[in-house]
């Protein structure tokens, strides 16, 4: 027992101060929110959309669908004039699917808004989520799980993952929803009492990810459920997921682009 | 390349094998080679069906690994009609492979003792081995399960949705009170069609398919894929590339092993190590992110090289972080071995005897924890492991303790390896053009991922495109080991036994 206490003292207190203080720094090669420069492309150039493995970039339209993007950076490498850039901005969670469509020259996103007053009164201080893994690669699941480690300590925000859907206020879906998980998804959702929310974490759960268009998948949580929060990434960084959850709970409000602050 | 006297062909690590140089054996000879190999120190690394151009019909390929002889060989046969005599009654390692072949190609293995679907999907050929009609729904995990009859025997069904943040799978326990007589595992819920989508590649998606075959093994699978492509293209990677890949592979092992030791502690309610290791795992993932921007190593390993360089400054920063993480890990993990209540839960739980591990063809830390000294970094080294050897860590007892302790030994070995590599990264190009893949050829690529042997077999068509790309995640071999280890255990020990193997559902389901 003494050894345990001694090691505990040596390991120290590691829970991060965020959101009261600055978030942990992203690695310099992190591929966060992309930006498309507003300059016109050379006539007929489709290098970026041809390089994109998930058809997230439509040629000639100048939109990037962040929901389909797997953040591989192949478009940025393919662009002959460096017009696509992945920034270090981890904040990408949104409330509406269309807010994931990035236009050329767009420097900021319409980030997720808080739940309405009634829902916030119910869930704001205590949100119980049932996680449902449905056909992904287990990386999103791993980085959702990370939020439960002592460095992130999701419990301090009143958010907890529960075993039974009967005990849950919402469903957090990862994976593209395989045909083989369709029934399990529906049953799990149905077992959650109303009112309930749905959160789609990762490129797969939003638009199918690398398996987009496969006949074996349904194409994400939105294929059969109404989604309240979309968290893009492949997988999203834990900070992106946490940021999304805190926005949903109304604990971060900088939708006007100002600095993070706890409310 | 030599043709051995039995009719199979040896595979060289670095060069592809022309398909027409692999003898097409009659099915009984093919079966004889596979069954004979597994009885003579060999094991099945892969057994799969394929349609290739050089002959019609469905062919079966067996990739056989002889660990002690450092040898890998291939045998093939062609199946006329819609059935062939099953290998499984003589060779249990073939069990899941034959169910896969039946499901994908509609070939019936006659005499297979447990002919069930494996992933619950429609056949690739339109021919159904269970005589189902085209377009008929195939509901997952529906059908007969092995049952134990008796007045006091009851059945416990768990999943596909589990209590934690875990992938889906279905478990059926036959129990007598608390005691588990038998466990049957039904998977396939994660099936998303990766192997089918690899056909016709390489395409711009191929690399992402392998990186997400098992997301916690992105570097391992990406390395296996890159090597398969490089073998087919006759392309040699620079020493610098090989070292960066090796560092990433070992960081992946470190992150997962440390995470597993934490999770094992969590499953027995030993909070100190659970808490510390959960965090330290993140430190290792962040080291990978320092190299390539992604915690899981996405985008780092690609055919023709690596996507990101590891310059001196970055290597220095990695060394500093490694040292701190190593120190924290040692402190956290050593608490386990000195704590009697931990050891009481770990020891003699979930036994996998060595002879069973051999018979089932178990790989990775699970095999090494049952005393089998098999590690591809030593037996079939590729890349930097041909020059820098990592000692093989084994333990004899085959229980949860052994599987935990082997991980601890490997953590220490991997840390030594990464530290040495970081101090001496050779110069060289980061990537070189891949070139065209050899047509009508076979390449086999083997990588020791953190869970064990990753085997990729690529067969090209006349245009150098993939006619078949077979992926074997180590979990595919090891799921039966978990079922076996549960026999005679209390059902309450299932989470602990399960975690001690920590197998991938998506890597199995593909």
What does this structure look like?
The complex is a heterodimer of chains A (263) and B (510). Chain A is built from 8 helices and 9 strands. Chain A has helices at residues 2-11, 47-51, 74-78, 117-123, 139-145, 182-191, 203-207, 238-248; strands at 34-36, 63-65, 84-86, 101-103, 127-133, 159-161, 170-174, 197-201, 229-231. In chain A, the strands form 3 sheets. In chain A, strands 6-5-7-8-9 form a 5-stranded parallel beta sheet, sandwiched between helices. Chain A has a two-stranded antiparallel ribbon with strand order 1-3. In chain A, helix 6 links the parallel strand 7 (170-174) and strand 8. Chain B is an alpha+beta fold. In chain B, the strands form 5 sheets. In chain B, strands 1, 3, 4, 5 and 6 form a 5-stranded mixed beta sheet that branches. Chain B has a 4-stranded antiparallel beta sheet with strand order 2-14-15-16. Chain B has a 3-stranded antiparallel beta sheet with strand order 9-10-11. In chain B, helix 6 runs antiparallel to helix 13.
Q: Kindly report the average pLDDT value of chain B.
A: 94
Per CATH, the class of the largest domain in chain B reads: Mainly Alpha
End-to-end span of chain B in angstroms? 32 Å
Q: Report the count of strand segments of chain B.
A: 16
The number of domains of chain B: 2
Strand content bin of chain B: 15-25%
Low-confidence stretches of chain B: none
> Architecture of the largest domain in chain B in CATH?
Orthogonal Bundle
**Main pleated-sheet profile of chain A:** 5 strands, parallel
Level-1 CATH class name of the domain at 117-248 in chain A: Alpha Beta
Strand order of the largest sheet of chain A: 6-5-7-8-9
**Portion in helices of chain A:** 10-25%
Radius of gyration of chain A: 19 Å
Write down the Rg of chain B: 22 Å
Number of strands of chain A: 9
How much is the average pLDDT of chain A? 91
Instruction: Give the number of helices of chain A.
Output: 8
CATH topology of the domain at 117-248 in chain A: Rossmann fold
Q: Kindly, what is the distance between the CA atoms of the first and last residues of chain A, rounded to a whole number of angstroms?
A: 40 Å
């Amino acid at each position: 027992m003494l050894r345990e206490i001694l090691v505990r003292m040596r390991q120290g207190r590691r829970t991060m101060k965020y959101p009261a203080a600055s978030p942990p720094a992203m690695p310099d090669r992190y591929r966060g929110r992309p930006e498309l420069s507003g300059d016109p492309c050379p006539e007929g150039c489709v290098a970026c959309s041809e390089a994109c493995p998930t058809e997230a970039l439509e040629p000639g339209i100048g939109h990037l669908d962040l929901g389909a993007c797997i953040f591989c950076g192949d478009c940025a490498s393919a662009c002959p004039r460096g017009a696509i850039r992945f920034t270090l901005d981890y904040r990408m969670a949104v409330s509406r699917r269309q807010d994931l469509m990035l236009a050329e020259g767009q420097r900021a996103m319409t980030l997720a808004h808080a739940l309405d007053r009634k829902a916030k009164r119910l869930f704001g201080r205590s949100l119980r989520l049932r996680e449902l893994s449905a056909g992904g690669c287990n990386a999103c699941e791993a980085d959702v799980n990370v939020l439960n480690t002592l460095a992130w300590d999701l419990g301090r925000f009143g958010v907890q993952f529960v075993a039974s859907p009967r005990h849950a206020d919402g469903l957090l879906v990862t994976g593209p929803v395989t045909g083989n998980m369709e029934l399990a998804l529906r049953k799990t959702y149905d077992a959650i009492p109303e009112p309930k929310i749905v959160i789609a974490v990762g490129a797969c759960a939003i638009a199918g990810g690398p398996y987009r268009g496969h006949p074996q998948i349904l194409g994400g949580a939105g294929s059969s459920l109404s989604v309240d929060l979309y968290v893009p990434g492949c997988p999203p960084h834990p900070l992106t997921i946490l940021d999304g959850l805190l926005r949903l709970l109304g604990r971060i409000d900088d939708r006007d682009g100002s600095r993070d602050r706890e409310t | 390349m030599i043709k051995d006297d039995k009719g199979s062909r040896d595979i060289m690590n670095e060069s592809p094998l022309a398909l027409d140089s692999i003898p097409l054996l009659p099915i009984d000879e093919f079966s004889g080679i596979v069954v004979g190999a597994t009885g003579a120190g060999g094991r099945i690394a892969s057994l799969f069906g394929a349609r290739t151009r050089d002959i019609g019909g469905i062919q079966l390929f067996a990739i056989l690994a002889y660990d002690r002889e450092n040898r890998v060989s291939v045998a093939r046969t062609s199946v006329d009609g819609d059935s062939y005599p099953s290998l499984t009654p003589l060779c249990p390692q073939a069990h899941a492979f034959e169910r896969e072949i039946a499901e994908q190609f509609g070939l019936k293995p006659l005499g297979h003792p447990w002919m069930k679907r494996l992933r619950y999907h429609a056949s690739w050929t339109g021919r159904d081995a269970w005589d189902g009609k085209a377009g008929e729904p195939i509901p997952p995990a529906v059908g007969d399960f092995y049952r134990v009859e008796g007045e006091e025997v009851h059945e416990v069904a768990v999943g596909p949705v589990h209590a934690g943040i875990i992938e889906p799978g279905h478990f059926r326990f036959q129990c007598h009170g608390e005691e588990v007589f038998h466990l049957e595992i039904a998977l396939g819920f994660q099936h998303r069609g990766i192997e089918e989508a690899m056909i016709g590649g390489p395409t711009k998606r191929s690399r992402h398919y392998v990186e997400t075959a098992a997301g916690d093994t992105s570097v391992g699978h990406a390395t296996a894929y890159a090597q398969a492509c490089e073998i087919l293209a006759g392309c040699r990677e620079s020493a610098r590339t090989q070292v960066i890949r090796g560092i990433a592979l070992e960081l992946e092992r470190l992150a997962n092993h440390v995470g597993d030791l934490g999770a094992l502690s969590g499953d027995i309610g030993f909070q100190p190590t659970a808490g510390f290791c959960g965090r330290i795992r993140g430190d290792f993932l962040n080291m990978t992110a320092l190299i390539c921007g992604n915690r899981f190593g996405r985008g780092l390993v690609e055919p023709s090289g690596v996507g990101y360089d590891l310059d001196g400054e970055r290597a220095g920063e990695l060394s500093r972080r490694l040292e701190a993480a190593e120190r924290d890990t040692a402190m956290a993990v050593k608490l386990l071995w000195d704590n009697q209540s931990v050891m009481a839960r770990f020891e003699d739980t979930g036994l996998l005897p060595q002879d069973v591990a051999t018979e089932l063809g178990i790989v990775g830390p699970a095999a090494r924890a049952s005393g089998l000294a098999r590690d591809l970094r030593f037996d079939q080294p590729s890349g930097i492991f041909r020059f820098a050897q990592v000692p093989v860590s084994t333990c004899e007892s085959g229980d949860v303790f052994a599987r935990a302790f082997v991980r601890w030994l490997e953590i220490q070995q991997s840390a030594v390896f990464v530290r040495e590599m970081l101090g001496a990264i050779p110069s060289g190009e980061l990537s070189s053009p891949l070139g065209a893949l050899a047509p009508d050829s076979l390449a086999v690529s083997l990588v020791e991922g953190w869970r064990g042997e990753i085997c990729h077999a690529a067969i090209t068509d006349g245009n150098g495109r993939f006619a078949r790309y077979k992926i074997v995640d180590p979990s595919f071999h090891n799921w039966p080991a978990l079922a076996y280890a549960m026999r005679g255990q209390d059902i309450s020990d299932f989470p602990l036994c399960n975690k001690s193997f920590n197998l991938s559902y998506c890597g199995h389901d593909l």
